[in-house]
Structures are given as C-alpha cells and as structure tokens.
Specification:
The protein is mainly alpha-helical. Helices cover 40% and strands 7% of the residues. It contains 5 helices and 4 strands; from the N terminus they run ββαααβαβα. It has a two-stranded parallel sheet. Helix 2 packs across helix 3.
Length: 134
C-alpha cells in the first residue's frame, strides 16, 4: 500500500509491528484424560519441530532465533522499504510492537492521513486509472 488513511484519532490504532507465537501445552490435560500422544519422526528428521519441542520445555531461545527473529526482521525490512522516506525510525518502538493512535502515527510516518472511508476512496480513485474509463 503506498498511501495509508486512518479513519479517526479516537479508535484507529496503527503499528504493532512485531512477531509473536502463542501455543497451548495440552500434554498434562491429555495425560489426565488418559490420552498419550506420540510424536514419531523419521530418522532423517531429527531436527523436525526441535524449536517447538524445546519451547514446550520452557526453552524459547531456538524458536526465537530460528523462527520468530527472522520473521521479525523480514517484517521490519518490508515496513522500512515500503515507508521509506516517510517513517521516523527514531520513534520509540516503531518497529518493535508499539501501537499509536492516528495523530501520532501520522506524525511518525506510519500513515499518510487521518480521514474517513470516503476520504480513502477519493484518494484511491485519484491514484487509480479509473478516471480514464469514466
């Protein structure tokens, strides 16, 4: 998107540029219910789901290092590239998950304008080639 319009400054929140993972450890529940879960891997797949299994043990470093951090860097790079020349990278938390209401998002370059749905439609039409065919 090369032009971003937030609807209002009351409830429009922008940002949350970050990566996270949430999962439930249901092993104890299953065991309590008499259900035993087996994970059987090929001998050629000793690293399959390794980061996930370590995370189940409370060891989060590998899942951060091999999955979450690379995704976060890709996400951050996409934002930097697509908001190049507009985004204030010195703004606290801008690429680390902080959210901003519309006016602050506008001041740091996460959005281009605060306006209504009609405003966004008018801008989209002005930027499109639709007028050529009307």
């Amino acid at each position: 998107c090369d032009y971003i319009v937030a609807d209002n400054n009351i409830s429009s929140e922008v940002g949350s540029i970050g990566v996270m993972c949430t999962f439930q450890d249901l092993q104890g529940y299953y065991e309590k219910e008499g259900i035993k879960v087996h994970h059987i891997y090929s001998s050629e797949s000793e690293n399959k789901n390794e980061a996930f299994h370590l995370a189940l043990e409370g060891k989060y470093e590998l899942i951060k290092e091999t999955e979450l951090d690379p995704l976060a860097r890709s996400f951050q790079n996409a934002i930097k590239e697509n908001r190049s020349g507009k985004l204030d990278l010195s703004a606290k938390g801008v690429l680390n998950g902080k959210t901003y209401f519309a006016q602050e998002a506008l001041s740091i370059g996460l959005i281009d304008r605060v306006g209504s749905k009609s405003t966004a439609i008018d801008i989209a039409l002005a930027k499109s080639h639709v007028k050529q065919y009307l």
